[in-house]
Design a protein that fits this description.
By secondary structure, the protein is of the alpha+beta class. The protein has 2 domains: about 180 residues, BirA Bifunctional Protein, domain 2 (2-Layer Sandwich); about 40 residues. It contains 4 helices and 12 strands, in the order E-H-E-E-H-E-E-E-E-H-H-E-E-E-E-E. The strands form 2 sheets. It has a 7-stranded mixed sheet with strand order 1-2-3-7-6-5-4, sandwiched between helices. The protein has a 5-stranded antiparallel sheet with strand order 11-10-9-8-12, with no helix packed on it. Helix 1 links the parallel strand 1 and strand 2. Helix 2 crosses helix 3. It binds biotin. This is Biotin-[acetyl-CoA-carboxylase] ligase. Its EC number is 6.3.4.15. One of its GO terms (molecular function) is biotin--[biotin carboxyl-carrier protein] ligase activity.
Length: about 240
């Protein structure tokens, strides 16, 4: 089921309300515009008209053995793969954990919010793509709009293609994991690079990405491992 809204606070808010009411795995909420779009680490996510802003409800009983780290990467993979099939001239890459970038500027971001009671009740994934956003609107945000590069005029077709790709990749897990992980690593140009850990205000060097979606960093010559999304990295 897909719910469309013109202008709302955030598709995450509506997704939580619907998940609490019992709406099933796979429910999708899309908005033309969000007034309080949010990103990882409580950052504001600028969501003007022209973007593709949506959230999906996931129920653990439908996720087999897929944990948040895998889910984030499978979503990122599905979004990047679908986008690239409609792009001319440019190639995208990942920035761990799940930003999709073009030349160091953000094209898309993914946010996962898990809700536990006694155990995991549901996960909401929020996906934001600067698809047909006016490039002027986001030029100060280290963000990049695909407006002049995307060959598909209809946002809704793209959404359906992403959902189809995602469903296929979730269904095939874990048989496809190795291939997805390899693809992800090949599209991650930051191994060996220096980074700033934004939420800790320290420097680090990226050593590797782990097979469960985590990252290995060297911080003051000490090796540390973080789970999917556990730190926020910025590269020069
Ligand atoms: C990030 O990179 O920090 C994640 C950004 C996620 C943005 C999307 S847009 C749709 C959904 N609704 C929100 O308020 N946030 C997510």
């Amino acid at each position: 089921m897909i719910f469309y809204f013109d202008k709302i606070s955030s598709t995450m808010d509506i997704a939580h309300i619907l998940a609490n009411k019992g709406y099933p795995h796979g429910t999708v909420i899309v908005a033309e515009e969000q007034t309080q779009g949010r990103g990882r680490f409580k950052r504001k996510w600028h969501s003007p008209k022209g973007g593709l802003w949506f959230s999906i409800i996931f129920r653990p009983e439908n996720l087999k053995t897929i944990k948040a780290g895998f889910l984030g990467i499978i979503i990122g993979f599905s979004v990047l793969k679908t986008l690239e099939s409609f792009l001319k001239d440019i190639k995208l890459n990942f920035k761990w954990p799940n930003d999709i970038e073009y030349e160091g500027k953000k094209v898309a971001g993914i946010l996962l919010e898990s809700v536990y009671e006694k155990e995991l009740e549901y996960i909401i994934a929020g996906i934001g793509i600067n698809l047909q956003v006016d490039p002027e609107e986001i030029k100060d945000l280290k963000a990049f709009s695909l407006k002049n590069y995307i060959t598909i005029p209809d946002k809704n077709i793209l959404l359906l293609e992403i959902l189809k790709e995602l469903e296929k990749n979730l269904d095939n897990f874990p048989n496809n994991w190795k291939a997805i992980f390899e693809f992800y690593k090949n599209k991650f140009p930051y191994i060996g690079k220096e980074a700033i850990i934004k939420n800790k205000n320290s420097k680090a060097k990226v050593i590797d990405i782990t097979e469960d979606g985590g990252i290995v960093l060297s911080i003051n010559k000490k090796i540390e491992r973080y789970e999917w999304g556990g730190v926020s990295l910025e590269f020069e």
